[in-house]
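User: Predict the full complex structure for these chains.
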Amino acid sequence: MYRAPVDEIAFTLKHVAGLQAAIDAGSLGELSEDLVDAILHEAGRFATEEVAPLHGIGDAHGAVLKDAAVTMPPGWKDLYRRWIDGGWNALSGPEEFGGQGLPTMLGVAALEMWNSGSMAFGIGPTLTMGAVEAIEKHASEALKKTYLEKLVSGEWMGTMNLTEPQAGSDLAALRARAEPVGDGTYRVFGQKIFITYGEHDFTDNIVHLVLARLPDAPAGTRGISLFLVPKFFVEEDGSLGARNDVFCSSIEHKLGIHASPTCTMIYGDGFAGGGQPGAIGWLIGEENKGLACMFTMMNNARLAVGMQGVAIAETATQKAIAFANERRQGKATGYDGDGMAPIVHHPDVQRNLLTMKALTAIARAIAYSCAHATDMAHAGGEAGKHWQERANLLTPIAKAFSTDVGVEVASMGVQVHGGMGFIEETGAASLYRDARIAPIYEGTNGIQAIDLVTRKLPQAGGDHVLGYIGELSEVVDALRDSNLDGFGRTADNLEASLKDFLDATLFLQDQVSDGGLQQALAGATPYLRLFALAAGGVYLAKGAIAEKSAGRIALCRFFAENLVGETRALKERVSLGAESLAAAAAALVAA
Amino acid sequence: MYRAPVDEIAFTLKHVAGLQAAIDAGSLGELSEDLVDAILHEAGRFATEEVAPLHGIGDAHGAVLKDAAVTMPPGWKDLYRRWIDGGWNALSGPEEFGGQGLPTMLGVAALEMWNSGSMAFGIGPTLTMGAVEAIEKHASEALKKTYLEKLVSGEWMGTMNLTEPQAGSDLAALRARAEPVGDGTYRVFGQKIFITYGEHDFTDNIVHLVLARLPDAPAGTRGISLFLVPKFFVEEDGSLGARNDVFCSSIEHKLGIHASPTCTMIYGDGFAGGGQPGAIGWLIGEENKGLACMFTMMNNARLAVGMQGVAIAETATQKAIAFANERRQGKATGYDGDGMAPIVHHPDVQRNLLTMKALTAIARAIAYSCAHATDMAHAGGEAGKHWQERANLLTPIAKAFSTDVGVEVASMGVQVHGGMGFIEETGAASLYRDARIAPIYEGTNGIQAIDLVTRKLPQAGGDHVLGYIGELSEVVDALRDSNLDGFGRTADNLEASLKDFLDATLFLQDQVSDGGLQQALAGATPYLRLFALAAGGVYLAKGAIAEKSAGRIALCRFFAENLVGETRALKERVSLGAESLAAAAAALVAA
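Assistant: Here is the predicted structure of the two-chain assembly.
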């Protein structure tokens, strides 16, 4: 069973990702270390004692649709109620509407824990947060007044309606339409698919944010507008009125996150009865600028999904280590107890467990560093701009690498359990199933890699990422200067990986700026992994230098002497692999 | 939907794995190329048209236990009947008992196709074949006469009963016991778990092979005997008699292969009623030599599981390529048709698909080469010994690498499908679920790697594997001499990977022979992958040289310029990684 690793989370936040320095410099207002510790401790308790125990029930029962209503698994509605009563939904919400306005760093640390407890639970509020952000930044005062307080507290939940059957990664293909009624509202029509928490019984009302086209809108992404469509209308006094014409027509039968209802939503088919069909919606932001409204919250949503990868990896690692300490098979050097040795003493099992542990640690370090940059970006000015670029740079890594790690580590976790891993009741399999969606949704990992290479590497004329690599090199210098024992060849290996990182970066920057876009696209995915491994190794070193503990030094060295060497092959794949890829790809196209 | 890749299978058998040369040299008796083609074609038809269409039903319904009886999914019993009526179970069975006695190469090629159609279907007969082999080689004439013909035809099925709750990888811990009755039979008692096809309605009788201890047996693996325990006794005239005291008490709720009943079997609890409890069994082979009897069929069973990895990878790749040709999103260079481009035109998708294709091809080449060695080993004499060593060497690679590839490729397959990949009805998810057991059962992949390093590398004083690497080098020389266009840097890169392979091999041989067992155990898993990638690249080259086609050359080059470079990092992990692993592992052990 999951136990929230509160100390590890706190350490990574403070000493790897930069929270301690930010607190000390007063960059985060009046936030104190004590408050941080208290919040993490309490969130850890809730995730461990309240969320995690309901994961298995959620997975087994799933969400159930009947007569357009979705019933959540037994105990889940109460769980959600206790969770919002604890103020957790409001953690990083705006203070003006009842939120606690705490930094993103704390928000993602808590999010990691909810998702470790149960990813199907953690995903719901993430959507609400996205809706809060979009409304806060772009909606009219009237809409804010009506909706924000209840969305911040969690009394109502929010959803994001982008995808249609023909429009997934390519939103230019959207067809949902909105017609002006004449009174400032719109009638929205269309079908949206894969709508997470589109319908459920957690809350009395659900606030849908929906992308749709106005009648005279230009084609493509410049003709998309964003609408707020409540499930129930809200009366002047705040009470709920009539049912709007939006309904869930089906929920998906999925590989994982069974308790998260993935809905097909039908807008404007007249199911609500009464007058004219059409789901009544209110415009958020300007006409035809809906995608820009969505993009303002995209970074945070992507980081949130990245946390799911970290979360699953953490739970899978804990579970595998616990099992390996209990399960006994065979003899092992280094075990001198009675009978068969716990399998944790077998070097091959140790390799799996340490790989899981190291990958989880670097994914977490990258994600928290991304959150730190987001928090620092609020400063504004030159410094704010710098940190926003850093957040932009790290977001695709935090999303894609962490979720790939989630899948890899969950798979290794099943393996460590042997035959028991394949039995559903053991629980390792549910992590392997749940993990698999995170590399797909909120922009597939391929799209993250393309975003990284084509939009993030060119930031600041290409200098931003080079400055980042320079900062990482300084940590390696500090490691050499530290004279700490136990690092072995860590400094040399990390330095070599940073050289690979730099070479590949310069190569791709040249391609992007100089007509080699196909080469850049072909190298994007291996580059993203190279970036993460090279940076991740340095983050482990940073933590090890800060704490000077044998355990952290040993894990860093294991990573540097066993895992980071992959960067060389990745660099070659980036810089030398595109031509053969193009040559071989011809055979893939159906005649 | 799966279409058996009959031409690709035939090509790999003949021109990569050595079937053509063996036919031409008369090493396989009267086997002709025409017969090979006819069998592959017909097996492909059956797998495509009969097995594959029932996969989804099998996955959704699963096997159902009620009152100790297991009902297979709708249509499956008829499918099995048509399959044995087609003579497929008897394909490589001994001719003396009605089998066709065809080479292992054909057996595994057919097995690949059944498993591609549905892995839960393919696994059942694999167990029967194992039972046939054990009985043929070790049982008395009387037992052969009673059981073999019906097991060869498939009228009855067989099972293997090794695992107990405390004894998985470590069979020394077995507790099931057998007491001599005095009339040549034994009463068997105990609980066996994870028994594949332990109970079902495919056949009227089921023949269990069971490992158990005699009362006076020594402890450990030298005190284990093998018994044949039929579900129903067989009368003198071959008809079925009374029920034996062996029952299925439960079936597992598993991540995948839902239609394969994974049973807990209870021996000797007296459920059959009547007289004294105890499941009546007959000894196979000598007392206390049961493990040796099991080991004679272990190689083939491991290769059979390896074929499941190849099979899943093939199906996943086909499915992903088909989807990528249909699904349209965005624009792509190289697509000049109307509207959005099929995603197969996006370089990042191409990278996934080509990686899937190349990994599948090399896993298949290795597995078929292993089968070829098994066939050639029947020659006896020095040549036979050489080929048996080759089969021994390649078996752990065929098992472990192929099944790892099955998981990797199935996961990439889900990814290529985007959101649809997470929806069960799409079918990509079931491959991801099914694939996950193959690295675990029939000896976990970690155990395969340890077997490779500690038992197979030392064969022939260490010379066998070195000779194998030498043969691979000759193929690279032939590639250089071929003057074929389109290979790019293939020869250089394959040569470098063979150098890594050689270096790592020599390093591990030294460790094993010179007191460095812990180092060898720590490096086993990365070494196995290194071996497979280096050898696999050469097999692709061998095929490309033989066919001289642009497609095969391009895929080989893609592999050589994008994937084989991983061997360098793997070599370093093998030779330099153990010390840091040991240092970091201390933290894994629970206090």
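The mean pLDDT of chain B is 96.
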